[in-house]
Amino acid sequence: MFRSILKYGLIAGLIVGIIDFTLFVSAGDEPHFEYGMLIGYTIMLIALSTVFVGIKQYRDRDLGGVIRFWPAFGMGVAISFIAGLFYVAAWEASQAITGADFVTAYSNYVLEQARAEGQSAEAIAKMAAELAEFKVLYAKPLWRLLMIFTEIFPVGVLVSLVSALLLRRPGFMPARRSA
After folding, report:
1. Model's pTM, two decimal places?
2. Partner of 4 at 20 to 30 A CA spacing, among 19, 73, 116, 119?
3. pLDDT tens readout for residues 41-60
4. How many CA atoms lie within 13 A of 140 on its CB side?
5. pLDDT at residue number 36
6. Per residue in 57-93, pLDDT tens?
7. Within a domain: residue 178?
8. Which residues have C-beta within 8 Å of that of residue 1, sequence separation ≥ 6?
9. What is the DSSP string of 121-132?
10. From CA 144, how far away is CA 135, in angstroms rounded?
């Protein structure tokens, strides 16, 4: 199981890491917040599809077509954990290379959106204070790394849950037997 976890974790990590690194570096100080979440979570789902593939391959090749829920779920979570580490590394590397100030760009975007929506000056001031607190927290490496990790890991847990629920049934996508 460890080999499968490592293999599919590395594949997921490389997919999410390389694509996100490329996008982060190309965006630099001008991240595309309008579509950034959609693009980011789509990339995560594509990369984390390896959770399903990894569990299925392990079930079919190593376990004779049968896997229980908890081993399948645990395997998926472990693959997701490895992918999450790559995601964090890609983010940190891209920020180090570009020198981008993500928090300031994000804060400016959020405040600009609030103004465009016509929110009151008090609401905007409160939002600005919260964003200033966020900037202080973001400057702390451990907090920032955990925050970035929690962007992808819950998605991986959800993919692991669905994959384990589906693949615990031996009749779901059974292995093809050669004639």
Report:
1. 0.88
2. 19
3. 999 999 999 999 999 999 99
4. 8
5. 79
6. 999 999 999 999 999 999 999 999 999 999 999 999 9
7. no
8. 58, 62, 71, 75
9. HHHHHHHHHHHH
10. 10
109, 114, 162 from 131: Cα distances, Å: 11, 13, 35
Tokens of 81: 């954990």
Q: Which two tokens stand for residue 21?
A: 């690194």
- The answer as to whether 30 is a domain residue is yes
Query: What's the chain's length in residues?
Result: 179
Residues 11, 35 contacting (CB under 8 angstroms): no
Q: How many independent structural domains does the chain possess? A: 1
Q: Note the pLDDT of residue 178.
A: 59
Residue 136 has pLDDT above 80, yes or no: yes
End-to-end alpha carbon distance in the chain = 27
Cα–Cα distances in Å, from 93 out to 11, 21, 81, 176?
19, 8, 18, 42
Q: Would 127 be classed as within a structural domain?
A: yes
Give dist(CA 64, CA 150) in Å, integer: 34
The CA-CA-CA angle for residues 142, 145, 151, to 5°, reads 140
- Tokens 């570096």 -> residue: 25
Question: Which amino acid, residue 56?
Answer: K
Tell me the residue range of the domain where 133 lies: 2-167
pLDDT above 90 as % of the chain: 71
Of 49, 55, 46, 47, give the one whose Cα is nearest residue 4: 55
Q: Within a domain: residue 174? A: no
